[in-house]
Amino acid sequence: MSTALDSLLDLLDLERIEQDIFRGASRSAVVPRVFGGQVAAQALVAAGRTVPADRTAHSLHAYFLRMGDPGAPIVYTVDRIRDGRSFTTRRVVAVQHGQPIFHLSASFQTYEEGLEHQADMPPAPDPETLPTAAEMLPRYADRFSDPGMVDRLVEARAAVDLRYVDAPPFGTVGEVREPRSQVWFRTNGKLADDPLLHVCMATYVSDMTLLDSVLLAHGRGGWAVGDVVGASLDHAMWFHRPFRADEWLLYDQESPSASGGRGLGQARIYTQDGRLAITVIQEGVVRVPR
Distance (Å, rounded) from C-alpha 64 to C-alpha 54? Predict the structure, then answer.
């Protein structure tokens, strides 16, 4: 297991300070604020730790309310909304400096048999044939005005092996492309068998690239390049089938709309053998600097 993955697992291992109150550490993202995927994953950890072990997460709906301060801990308060015979519902509020910065509702379910069908997995190359972030990012060093950006991007993604199928937005600035993107990802090391951990790790990664497809439709390079200003607004995920976040997952993403200073991304995450594991939808602020 990599040192970076150890560090991320420590970040997700919240401290319980009361029965339904948890505290998590913070750290800076590529830009000087807390990465949204970190807050979402930590909030899901907090919710999951109040749920019986035989109930796994099947959906979450979240709103990003304020930018997180990477220099301060985050307190997560869990409300036990409902404990039914099959479903358990939790609400989590993340607080910093006395103000809510994030709100999450999550639902958990006991396993049961039911009807089965799924959308087919789209074609994608073998992830092992694609360059790693450490191999790919230096190729685009001249696209960033900040000379330290490549190192920060590589460091931010060191816990996760994330491989773009096609050039990322910052690799084709000025080129308008179809609003679709694909990445393969898995953790840089094996994880324990706890299903909650794998769901939380996928939640963490899901906020990394989902709005890329919005940028592709307009030839924009993104927040790291500085030709747009953006932030996540809301995020929803549905967990359909079991998966492991330490095995290859295909993140197939597209953007059906951008308007009003906002962009919408939607995606499906498949296991390497073609099972539809997760559906994701996110809207974010996408503004052109003036």
Answer: 29
Give tens-digit pLDDT for 2-11: 899 999 999 9
The single residue of 181, 182, 232, 266 carrying the catalytic annotation is: 232
Contacts of 274 (CB under 8 A, 6+ apart): 120, 121
> Which entry of 105, 182, 266, 282 is annotated as an active-site residue?
282
The confidence score (pLDDT) of residue 1 equals: 61
282 as an active site residue: the answer is yes
Check 107, 161, 207, 253 and give the catalytic one: 207
- Dist. CA 20–CA 46, nearest whole Å: 8
The beta strand positions in the chain, using DSSP E, are 15-18, 21-24, 55-64, 74-83, 87-96, 99-110, 160-164, 180-187, 229-239, 249-259, 262-271, 276-287
CB 184 within 8 A of CB 126: no
Cα-only R_g, the chain: 18
The two three-digit tokens of residue 288, written as one number: 């052109």
pTM of the complete model: 0.95
